[in-house]
Each structure stands twice: as structure tokens, then as C-alpha cells.
Specification:
The complex is a heterodimer. Chain A is mostly helical. Chain A has 8 helices and no strands. The longest helix of chain B has about 30 residues. In chain B, α1 packs antiparallel against α2. Chain B contains 3 helices and no strands. The chains are: A mainly alpha, B mainly alpha.
Chain lengths: ~170, ~100
């Protein structure tokens, strides 16, 4: 059986995921997305992995949600409050969601996952650091290069050439 | 620990379903990015849950990689949305028809 913390976290996470997609205003939507990401961090705490929970809060709630909020502020005001969606696809989308949930859920419930129990201690974060620096070191370097490339690419893409030219004239 | 593995997997399936609903119904580029984020978080939750119950540290390592790559993906995706918004003055993906600069 689940405990009260799990129930509260799942209500917060799933409810704010629905709110992030369905609220009319994009600003409130991105705040609801923050709720979903924070709820996932809470699940990580329940799973005895505080290191991942810390990363989730620092990277997702701290930077990605703020980045999305700033992008929303760059968009015109009418577009923030306008609901852009396909009304014909709405019921098909809800049907797809329910089919997916029921299908995958029944497969998972019928499988042997229900019997898995553990009494072993949780993984120590020192093991994660050791993994990073021994077996996964090429992946770590590749990830650093990908992050640097993504940030540089984002800066190059979002640069405004017209503003720079005007400043050069002045 | 009173919570079982299957509870976490069911929450993650619910998040995956909501994300796929958002991807298929919404035409707002920023909201589609929200849906992608929700799906990535469902995957991370699965990774960490299985890593706790096996138990093995590789799942948590992979979850950390996944969080870092998702941060790069959001930075690139948001800058693409900004470029497209500057070009079309709209964030409706049905308007993004031409790939010509």
C-alpha cells in the first residue's frame, strides 16, 4: 500500500501536469509545470535518492522553468492568453491518452512487477560519483561537449543581427 | 518502505499519457515543449524507481545524464521557438510551413 506522502505527491504531480497543458494563460501554465517538476523531485526523495532530487530542483525547477518563463514573456500578449489547439483532435487525443494509460497500465499490473520488494539499503551517492569517473567517463566528457554546443548554438540562433548593425552605425 | 515499484511505474504511465495527449492536441509550440518535458520526467522517474528496487547505481547515473541532456534540449528548443516567432510573429506550429530563411 502507498503512504500519504506518495498520494499527495501523485495528486500534485498529475494535477499540475494537466493544468500546465490546459490553463489558458501560458504564464500560469509554466508555473504549473514547475509544480510537476517539483513533484517529481519529491518522488525522488521518496525513492531515497536525494542527490538526484537536488539535481532535479537545481536544473529543472531552477533553470529550465525560469528559462521557459522568460521565453513566454518575450511572446506577444495576445498569444500568451490565446488557446491554440485543434478542436477536432481534442477527443481523439483524450481517447489516445486513455487507451495508452489503460493498455500500458493493464500490461504492467499483470506483469511480475507487483511482487518486487526490496529491503536492501539505498544506493549511496558516492557510488554515482565513482560510476561517473570510472566506467562512464567518455559519456561524461561527451555530455559536457553537448551542453557547451547546445548553449553556443542557442546563443547563435537567438542573436539579433539587425540590432547589432544599428549599434555599429551609431 | 511502504511504496512499491508498481505505484511509481503507474504514476509514470499517467504522466506519459498526459504528455502524449499534449503533443497530439496542442498546436502552441511552447505548450508542446511542456508536453515533452512531462514525458522526459516520466522516463526519469522510471529510471530512478527501478534503480532503487534492483538496487543498482547505474539507473541514477543514467537519470543524471538524462537531466543534463534535457537541459540542453530545452535551451536549443526555446531558441528555435524564438527564431520562428521572430520570423512568423506567431507560435502556432501550423503556421511554421516554410523552412526557407
Amino acid at each position: 500500500m502507498v503512504d500519504a506522502a506518495f498520494l499527495a505527491l501523485s495528486v500534485i504531480t498529475i494535477g499540475s501536469a494537466i493544468a500546465a497543458l490546459e490553463l489558458r494563460s501560458l504564464i500560469y501554465g509554466s508555473m504549473a509545470l514547475m509544480g510537476t517538476l517539483g513533484g517529481i523531485a519529491g518522488f525522488f526523495l521518496l525513492l531515497d535518492s536525494p542527490f538526484i532530487a537536488m539535481f532535479q530542483i537545481a536544473v529543472y525547477v531552477g533553470s529550465i522553468a525560469v528559462l521557459i518563463l522568460f521565453t513566454v514573456m518575450l511572446v506577444k500578449r495576445e498569444l500568451i492568453f490565446k488557446k491554440i489547439e485543434d478542436p477536432r483532435r481534442k477527443f481523439a487525443g483524450i481517447g489516445l491518452m486513455l487507451i495508452l494509460m489503460v493498455g500500458l497500465g493493464s500490461i504492467i499490473i499483470d506483469s511480475g512487477l507487483r511482487t518486487i520488494q526490496t529491503n536492501e539499503p539505498a544506493v549511496d551517492f558516492r557510488d554515482i560519483g565513482e560510476d561517473f569517473l570510472t566506467y562512464y567517463w567518455p559519456a561524461l566528457i561527451l555530455m559536457a561537449l553537448i551542453l557547451a554546443g547546445a548553449v553556443t548554438g542557442a546563443l547563435v540562433l537567438a542573436r539579433r543581427e539587425d540590432v547589432e548593425d544599428e549599434q555599429r552605425v551609431n | 518502505m511502504s511504496n512499491e515499484l508498481i505505484d511509481f511505474v503507474i504514476v509514470s504511465i499517467a504522466l506519459l499519457g498526459i504528455g502524449i495527449y499534449g503533443l497530439s492536441v496542442k498546436r502552441n509550440a511552447i505548450r508542446m515543449l511542456f508536453a515533452v518535458e512531462i514525458i522526459i520526467n516520466a522516463a526519469n522517474l522510471n529510471l530512478v524507481a527501478f534503480a532503487r528496487f534492483i538496487p543498482n547505481s547505474a539507473g541514477q547515473t543514467l537519470a543524471l545524464f538524462s537531466i543534463a541532456i534535457a537541459a540542453a534540449e530545452v535551451a536549443a528548443g526555446l531558441s528555435l521557438i524564438i527564431v520562428a516567432y521572430r520570423m512568423y510573429q506567431n507560435i502556432d506550429i501550423a503556421d511554421f510551413r516554410s523552412l526557407k530563411g
